[in-house]
Structures are given as C-alpha cells and as structure tokens.
Design a protein that fits this description.
Length: 369
C-alpha cells in the first residue's frame, strides 16, 4: 500500500507533495535525536527565561573549543539556525541606494537568493564547477568576470548543497588573492555540512581570513537538531559589532531550549556521521549497478543527477511513481536538467527509490538505433 508522507518544499518553490519515498528535503533522518536529553534539561536547568541575545556563553565557548581554536568569545554569536546567521549578515551589508552586490553560487541553496533580495542586495551568480575532476569548487575565472567595485560579498558553501563538492586548497589560494586585490570584498563561508565529508578529503578552514569575512555553521545537519533552530556566526569584532543590534532587535533571543540541547550534543561529543557514509555507499552501489552516470559527492547528503532533460518533467514522472526529489533548476540555471536526491534515508527506502530513479534516468535518455 502506498504510505503517504507530506513534504513541505516551499523553499524550492514547489507545492507540498504526498509521496512514498521523500528524498526531497535536506533533513538528517539517519541520526536520531536523543529525546531523553530533553526531559533532563527541563528538570535540571533554569531554561525558562531569555538567554543573552548573542547566545549562551557556555555554548559559544564549546563551539570555539570544537571548531575555532584560535578565536575567542567576541568572534562568535549563536543564531536562529544558519538561515538566521545569513539573514543578519546580509542585513548588515544593506546600504541605502541598493548598490551593493553579492555573488551567489549557481547552483546554490535557494534561500540565499531570497535573503539577498530581502536585504536589497544586487544578485550576481558565479559558477560551481560541475565536472567531477575539476581542481576547484568555484570557476574563478567566471567569478572574476562578475566582480565589480560594488561587490561586497561572495557567498561560498562547502560541502556544497546541492552538488556535494568541496572547497579545496586551490580555492583557498584563489579566494586569498581575490580578497587582497579587492579591498571592499568580504566572504561568507556556509559550512553547515562541515562534518559530513567522505573519503580522505578534509574541510578547509577559513578562520585565518576572518578579518575579511564570516563563517556560518549549524546544528541542523551534522546533528539531528534541525527543529531546535540553532546555528552560529563567527567573524571579526568590528563586523560583529554591526551584527549585534540586528540580533538584539530582529531576533530578540535565541531559543534557550535549543541552545541547551545543542550544548548537550557537544558535551556528549556525539558523532552522527557513520550512517551517512553507509547511505552514500548504498546510493553509489545502486547507481553504478544501473549504469547511471553521476558525480560522486565528497560531502553533505545529496546526489545531483544530470537527467539531460527538463527536470520539472522528471520530477513529475518520479512523483507519479511515489518518489519525491527536488528539481535542479530550483538551485539556479546550472541546475537545469538535474534532480537533487537527499540520501539521509533508511537503506531499504534508498534501495527501492533509487531503482525507480535509475529506471527513470534510462527512460529519459535518447535511444541509440
Ligand atoms: C547550504 C545550507 N545552508 C543553510 C541551511 C539552513 O540551515 P539551518 O537549518 O541551520 O537554518 C541549509 C539547509 O538545508 C543548507 O543546505
């Protein structure tokens, strides 16, 4: 019997859908949230109050200790998810006249564009390299052509949603040169998937460039806390000073319950990554067996498959067979003809839905007579 699951895909501009296999939203379904922590917290802690608008000092210190050893408390604030961090950063660059430009990745996480619009920033797109063997995540030559004296921000996301590709050492050299040459430019690194990296690759740290940028993280992907809405931003003290009035007034305070849960996750040093490695291996096996050409993700929990035909049509056909995925065009022009699959799903669902997707891929390819 077709069991139905509702998926709210509003961020991708498509209607809510009822499907058996929901591979659309980027939710970390493979890691179970330890519910027992919640009862303990409510009983023991004095959480029924506003926490400081920049977040609990203990949580900020724990985050520094885990991810950013060379920084201190003035560099970090807790935010309403990574989305809240991005919102506050972009608002701080919103100037009267609306001449400020931001460079966004194509393909890229759809809310980037909306948030930039809300802050009246002029959007330009730079290309993510889609070839498996390219040395850099970013097409730096094409990005250079987009840059002008009005470009204040370049937003980078690694591991990248939707491609699963990583920012490399070579990207870091290129970014450094770009910042040297363009004194008005700042970077934003969205590293919400930083601990979900496969094989021998490593996440590239950018905290040494922080006088010229921001790093954004989250408990929504690497930890199963997406409902708690806890993220963070790190930057230099000067830029942080501009963010603080926005935190105070736009968000008031960040959820005290959410912060305590996040703290408990860090204190207990949970590692949730293993099931994601296994899930990626499952997808790899089914796609390889069915001879579906694909780029192998190096991080995150998505596959970005090129169907070489109208992705809205592909999504519709797959929906009719009970599989919900996201059309690549929702991520930008380079995503046309692609679909994004979230592989944070249990093994049996992945195997069954990937067989449907693989059959779908073959049915859309031209027949060689
Ligand atoms: C690249 C990227 N950044 C940010 C977010 C949002 O994170 P949060 O739930 O912490 O707001 C997502 C969620 O899918 C994402 O894929």
């Amino acid at each position: 019997m077709l069991q139905t699951i509702r998926a709210d895909t509003g961020a991708f501009g498509i209607e809510a859908i009822q499907k058996k296999y929901n591979l659309s939203l980027g939710e970390p379904h493979l890691s179970r949230f330890p519910l027992e922590l919640l009862a303990d917290l409510v009983r023991i802690k004095d959480v029924h109050r506003y926490y400081p608008s920049r977040g609990s000092e203990t949580l900020r210190l724990s985050l520094l200790n885990k991810y950013y050893h060379d920084l201190n408390l003035e560099n970090i604030s807790v935010t309403h998810g990574a989305i809240g961090a991005l919102d506050v950063i972009l608002r701080s660059h919103c100037e009267r006249g609306g001449d400020v430009e931001i460079l966004l990745p194509d393909p890229g996480f759809p809310p980037y564009e909306k948030l930039a619009e809300f802050s009246k920033l002029k959007i330009k797109k730079y290309k993510i390299n889609l070839a498996q063997n390219s040395e850099t995540l970013i097409d730096w030559q094409q990005l250079g052509q987009q840059l002008s004296s009005q470009t204040q921000l370049v937003l980078i996301n690694s591991p990248n949603n939707p491609t699963g590709r990583l920012f490399t050492e070579k990207d870091k050299l290129e970014l450094n040169q770009l910042l040297q040459k363009n004194s008005q430019l700042h970077f934003i690194m969205d590293e919400v998937y930083r601990e979900l990296i496969f094989g021998n690759a490593e996440h590239i740290e950018l905290s040494e460039f922080l006088d010229r940028g921001y790093i954004v993280g989250s408990f929504s992907k690497m930890y199963p806390l997406q409902g708690a809405r806890i993220g963070w931003v790190v930057t230099n003290p000067q830029s942080m000073k501009k963010l603080i009035p926005i935190f105070n007034n736009a968000y008031g305070a960040i959820s005290s319950f959410g912060q305590e849960l996040a703290q408990a996750m860090l204190d207990k040093d949970f590692d949730f990554s293993e099931p994601y490695h296994k899930a990626r291996a499952t997808v790899e096996k089914v796609l390889t067996k069915n001879q579906v050409p694909h780029m192998i993700p190096q991080g995150g929990f998505y596959y970005f498959l090129d169907f070489k035909t109208d992705d809205r049509l592909v999504v519709q056909k797959l929906q009719e067979q009970g599989v919900a995925v996201v059309p690549g065009s929702a991520f930008g022009a380079q995503g046309n003809n692609h679909i994004r699959i979230c592989f944070a799903q249990k093994k049996s669902d992945l195997e069954e839905s990937l067989e449907i997707i693989a059959n779908g891929w073959h049915s859309f390819q031209p027949v060689n007579l």
